[in-house]
Amino acid sequence: MVAVDQSAQSGMVVALQANYLEVELDQVSERIPSRLLCTRRTRLSHRGEAVYVGDRVRVEAIDASHARAVVSHVEPRVSFLTRPPVANATTVVVALAVAQPAFDPDQASRFLLTAERTSLHVQLVLTKTDLLEPEALEQLRARLHAWGYPPLLVSTGSGLGLSKLKQSLAGSSLSVLCGPSGVSPASKSLEVGDSFVEVAGVRVTDDNRNRLGFRGKPGEKVDAVVLRDGEEVSITVARGAVRQMTSKAQLLENMTESDAEGWGPDDMMIIEKSATEDGVVWILSSSKFTEEATGLTADAYTATRFVFNDEGKVSRVANLTEDRFVLEQQGYSITR
After folding, report:
1. DSSP-assigned beta bridge partners for residue 308
2. Angstrom distances, CA of residue 5 to CA of 1, 56, 66, 68, 157
3. What is the full per-residue pLDDT of the chain (336 aa) written as tens digits?
4. Domain residue spans in the chain?
5. Which CATH superfamily is domain 89-178 in?
6. pLDDT digits (tens, 9 = 90+) for 261-304
7. Contacts by 82-85, CB closer than 8 A, 24 or more apart
8. Which of 57, 142, 285, 302 would give a disulfide with 321, using CB separation of 3.0 to 4.6 Å?
9. How far apart are CA 9 and CA 61, in angstroms?
10. Which residues contact 154 (CB under 8 A, 6 or more apart)?
11. Left (φ > 0), alpha (ψ -120 to 50) or beta: where does 206 sit?
12. What is the pLDDT of residues 242-269, one digit of tens each?
């Protein structure tokens, strides 16, 4: 028999897992786990009350042995960010590296302006400070201070500033971290705005653009030429297997935030379709895109698999685009 604690507890939503909420309780006890996997009361769903990370909630029907509970109430929010959706944040931490990659003032301005639009407190953090000469680091610190953003200087290598960063975060009830994504290996050779004009000794044209020599086994070197600021620059890159994983939440956010005018392809065509007796439909389609920098076009082929249930509704959708790309990166090809 499952023992259920009927007393209510308060806490914060710290993660969303499909239809479940992970709630961290305010009061820690030996009898009840500090984190509970929760569902929502039906009345919250009927009211259309969405629950997000950062929401202050009340939980009931606590099953301590299985670390489960039910969210019965959502407290009023003091703030709400739409991207990413976070409730009750009080601080936006903008983290920027000073080296590898080099500090980009324009990029820093964009992040800081975006953070300011939240109307929350903004804390600027400079990372990898051990990779910059002390004089250059001081000049950068003074420049940003003049912008109105006294930065915290930190380094995981030397430990500089980590204690101050912890103190700063501890003073905020909930902080949201933002900044550029991690450094790609290609960033050592490529820069934003580069456009390939030659790959493995072959000049890029509309006709051969879909057959460039990037495909092959990971690790092999590929010589190329890119157009950078109006000049042709020779670079060398290494092949690597690529696989993109996108969650349902990320896909929906991309659909919501994207610019509809520039989101879709220039043209799309269904090449072939087939169906099986057990309710599976395959669609082979082709999409055409145009690169703004060069005006060259490229085709993308996708095999989409639709599975229908007994009611005639789609129950599963899968694309083979990325799987095909991974196989070809590894030296294989898909044939009919």
Report:
1. 314
2. 13, 20, 12, 10, 47
3. 444 455 788 999 988 876 788 999 988 777 888 888 888 876 665 555 788 899 999 998 888 888 888 898 999 999 998 877 899 999 999 999 998 778 888 888 988 988 898 889 999 999 999 989 999 999 999 999 999 999 999 998 888 999 999 998 888 889 998 887 655 555 567 776 778 888 888 888 877 766 666 665 666 788 888 888 788 888 887 766 545 555 666 666 666 655 555 556 778 888 888 888 777 888 888 887 776 656 667 677 788 888 888 787 888 887 776 445 555 555 554 443
4. 9-77, 89-178, 185-238, 265-329
5. P-loop containing nucleotide triphosphate hydrolases (3.40.50.300)
6. 555 677 888 888 888 877 788 888 888 777 665 666 767 778 88
7. 83/253, 83/257, 84/53, 84/176, 84/253, 85/52, 85/53
8. 302
9. 10
10. 125, 126, 127, 129, 160, 161, 162, 164, 165
11. alpha
12. 455 556 666 666 666 555 555 567 788 8
How many CB atoms lie under 10 A from the CB of residue 238? 13
C-alpha closest to that of 234 among 223, 244, 242, 245: 223
**Three-state SS for 147?**
helix
Residues composing the chain: 336
Please identify, in words, the CATH class of the domain defined by 9-77: mainly beta
Q: Which residues contact 37 (CB under 8 A, 6 or more apart)?
A: 17, 20, 21, 22, 67, 68, 69
Question: What is the rounded distance in angstroms from the CA atom of residue 135 to the CA atom of residue 152?
Answer: 16
**Tokens representing residue 178 in the block:** 């933002």
- Give CATH for domain 185-238: 2.30.42.10
**Measured between alpha carbons, how far is residue 255 from residues 83, 140, 191 in Å?**
13, 37, 27
